[in-house]
Specification:
Largest interface: A-B, 17 and 23 residues
Structural class of chain B: alpha/beta
Number of domains of chain B: 2
Number of helices of chain B: 13
CATH class of the largest domain in chain B: Alpha Beta
Oligomer: heterodimer
Shape of chain B: globular
Order of helices and strands of chain B: EHEHEHEHHEHEHEEHEHEEHEEHEHEHE
Largest sheet of chain A: 7 strands, mixed
CATH topology of the largest domain in chain B: Rossmann fold
CATH architecture of the largest domain in chain A: 3-Layer(aba) Sandwich
CATH architecture of the largest domain in chain B: 3-Layer(aba) Sandwich
Number of strands of chain B: 16
Strand order of the largest sheet of chain B: 3-2-4-5-7-6-13
CATH class of the largest domain in chain A: Alpha Beta
Helix content of chain B: 40-55%
Strand content of chain B: 15-25%
């Protein structure tokens, strides 16, 4: 346990990656050990793949503050695509520890987010999850990396908690998850940060109340400019069985089925959220669309 | 030119609406405001007006339909009372949040339970925080003039307006009213040109957007700012009305207040009775006065402070209870005067619930109690017009 009385963790992830569960687990372990902890979430349009935040606060005295931590000691980035779109360093100082799910070396991530200034841990949690669980649920691996980076609780205790939490729900996945926590603990890599690095640029200011359109009305058609493509954690793949029945085009909630000359030719990578509705409505005898793990390779 | 007619408050509103001739009207009938829509529906049936009347299955739907029509760019009017206002409660916030200039005539009525059809202010006081401008008229004449002004106020402030008057007392009693000529009203209200509308397809807009914690407060603050500016809009339009038609009402009305020591503060038709009581008190050598609130939202706190600060004691009359605390008007008057280094003693009296009359004797007793306490240098206790002595069993 660090000397500081209160430790605050902020989790950045996407809907469907299990980060709410990940944020709760250390809190539950601490409370079970008669300590003080709080886990909370930011609620919004949490459709699968939407950027979300969770918080875990751990303290050696009673926690009386229920507002979201402003200056977290630790930031965990469950999905590395969020490094580009979310203000992950917001409210943190140079001593904060940034833990990122990435196959890259921590030094490279530190350079990308802070010019090399910040303390960064990386662990390839997606790869580990795919190997151990067969699915992209990187939360348990990152939990292992968090324990390694902070020594908040012992590895044994968190393994017990994972067993307790998953044992009832999904016994088949239990051993894979336990292995994921162990591998996250063992395979996490650290970069100390460099004093003479260039500091990161502050977040741009937001509009004042008198600069926002009255009643929050917006010009029509702006959803097109709002890229939701990076919400994907799975992506559709089209095969040659397609008979161009247009059911996917009809049901796609984001107009992301690309049609040319009355034929389905692919998916709009800017707007496809990877919800899988197209694969679901594709007629069973045809099965021209399959959902595959991973968000990036969505072909047009 | 004004023409004298005899009409009930509801008929006066219906006549004003005929002269306004809104594009759309959506309503569901409820006592005591039914007559407004009933009369207007007759105008439509007779081909006198071209308004599109939408009869819906509830007040919740009535206000929803008003919002749709208003967002589409129409001039929209409705009427309701009591349970109707309560049922449309959640939709009231959407009308104001979307900044739609809907005008609603409200014949004020008590809320159930127990069921009661008579006048009190529980219905509109229940929605005082809904972001609607609330103007309360003392009689049918003022209700008539105010609903004409309300069209301009709503469109100027881009906020919805309730024009309230006491159910039955005003809505159903035949009174002498001076109406304007149709052309005068049409000229005064002008043609409605919304800044944005759903049917303005060249500059199309999305209404009803989603706002998370990072934007919601900013958009709510815009409403607060619009409400503050509405004070000036109400005053300006009232002045224009005065210049054209010779009648003015202001944000509030005062009676014998300049040299008064004690005063009542009230909303609605009871002001008439209190004027009589004030006259009687003056005959007895008691320096009494009265202030009647017309604009309750926005609340003209600063002007009220300047008007009441010289008094020794004030009795604020609330025609709605707020169980567990004091009346809403009392709270606002206290809040307006709290910053004065020395402020009058302020007390609260709940009256007129479920249509209970506050006649002259009762009104005089309020003034006498106020005068006695002031003479003794004590604060008069809060009152409640309720039987405290029973049959003695």
């Amino acid at each position: 346990m660090p000397e500081k009385q209160t430790l605050e963790i902020r989790w950045h992830g996407r809907g469907g990656q299990g980060i709410v569960t990940a944020a709760k687990m250390p809190a539950e372990v601490i409370i079970k050990q008669n300590g003080h902890a709080l886990a909370s979430q930011e609620y919004g349009p949490e459709r699968s793949g939407a950027p979300i935040k969770c918080y875990t606060t751990i303290s050696n005295t009673e926690i009386k503050m229920y507002s979201q931590p402003e200056h977290p000691d630790i930031v965990i980035v469950v999905d590395s695509t969020l490094l580009k779109t979310e203000p992950i360093l917001e409210g943190t100082n140079e001593n904060a520890i940034i833990i990122v799910n990435s196959s890259h070396e921590p030094e490279n991530i530190a350079r990308a987010i802070s010019g090399g200034k910040r303390k960064v841990w990386t662990v390839d949690a997606t790869a580990i999850a795919l190997q151990e669980l067969g699915k992209n649920f990187p939360n348990t691996t990152l939990l292992g990396a968090l324990i390694r980076a902070t020594e908040l609780v012992s590895l044994e205790n968190i393994l017990e908690k994972v067993a307790e939490g998953l044992g009832k729900k999904n016994a088949a996945l239990l051993e894979g998850n336990l292995q994921a926590v162990r591998r996250g603990y063992n395979e996490a890599r650290f970069y100390q940060g460099s004093e003479d690095a260039v500091p990161s640029t502050p977040a741009p200011p937001q509009k004042a109340w008198y600069e926002i359109e009255e009643a929050g009305t917006l010009p029509a058609g702006t959803a097109k400019k709002y890229s939701t493509g990076d919400w994907r954690i799975t992506h559709p793949v089209l095969n040659e069985q397609c008979v161009h029945c247009m059911l996917c085009w009809l049901f796609c909630p984001d107009n992301a089925i690309v049609v040319k000359n009355e034929k389905v030719i692919g998916f709009d990578p800017e707007h496809c959220k990877g919800c899988g509705i197209c694969a679901e409505v594709c007629p069973p005898k045809i099965r021209a669309i399959a959902m595959e793990e991973g968000g990036e390779p969505c072909e047009k | 030119m004004r023409k004298v007619i005899a009409a009930t408050g509801n008929q006066a509103i219906a006549i004003a609406l005929r002269q306004i001739e809104p594009d759309v009207m959506c309503a569901y009938p409820i006592t005591p405001s039914t007559q407004i829509m009933e009369t207007y529906a007759q105008y439509i049936a007779d081909g006198i007006v071209k308004t599109e009347l939408r009869l819906v299955e509830s007040e919740h739907s009535a206000m929803s339909a008003c919002i749709g029509a208003s967002a589409a760019g129409a001039r929209v009017v409705t009427a309701s009372s009591s349970q109707g206002i309560a049922l449309m409660h959640e939709i009231l916030y959407i009308a104001s949040g979307l900044r739609l200039p809907i005008v609603m005539a409200v014949a004020n009525r008590a809320l159930s339970a127990p069921i009661n059809i008579h006048g009190d202010h529980s219905d509109t006081m229940g929605s005082r925080d809904a972001g609607w401008i609330q103007l309360y008229a003392k009689n049918a004449q003022e209700a008539y003039d105010t609903i004409i002004q309300a069209i301009r106020i709503a469109e100027g402030a881009r906020l919805p307006v309730m024009v309230c008057f006491d159910g039955f007392t005003i809505s159903h009693s035949v009174q002498r009213i001076e109406i304007l000529e149709d052309a005068e009203v049409k000229d005064f209200i002008g043609v409605y040109k919304p800044e944005h509308s759903l049917l303005d397809i060249k500059r199309s807009k999305t209404f009803g957007t989603f706002a998370l914690p990072n934007f919601y407060a900013e958009i709510k603050y815009q409403q607060r700012d619009a409400m503050r500016k509405a004070l000036y809009i109400i005053k300006d339009i009232d002045t224009e009305f005065l210049n054209r038609f010779g009648t003015s009402y202001g944000l509030f009305e005062t009676y014998m207040l300049e040299d008064a020591e004690i005063a009542t503060v009230v909303i609605g038709s009871t002001a008439g009775t209190l004027k009589y009581a004030t006259d009687e008190m003056r005959k007895e050598g008691i320096r009494a006065g009265m202030l009647r609130i017309r604009a309750f939202r926005p609340f003209p706190a600063k002007d009220i402070t300047d008007t009441l600060k010289h008094l020794k004691a004030i009795m604020v009359l609330d025609r709605t209870d707020s169980p567990g605390t004091d009346g809403p008007l009392y709270q606002d008057i206290c809040s307006a005067l709290i910053d004065m280094p020395i402020h009058p003693s302020i007390s609260n009296f709940m009256y007129g619930l479920g249509g209970r009359e506050l006649a002259l004797e009762k009104a005089k007793r309020i003034y006498r109690d106020l005068a006695d306490a002031t003479r003794k240098g004590i604060k008069v206790e809060h009152g409640y017009d309720v039987r405290t002595e029973g049959v003695g069993r």
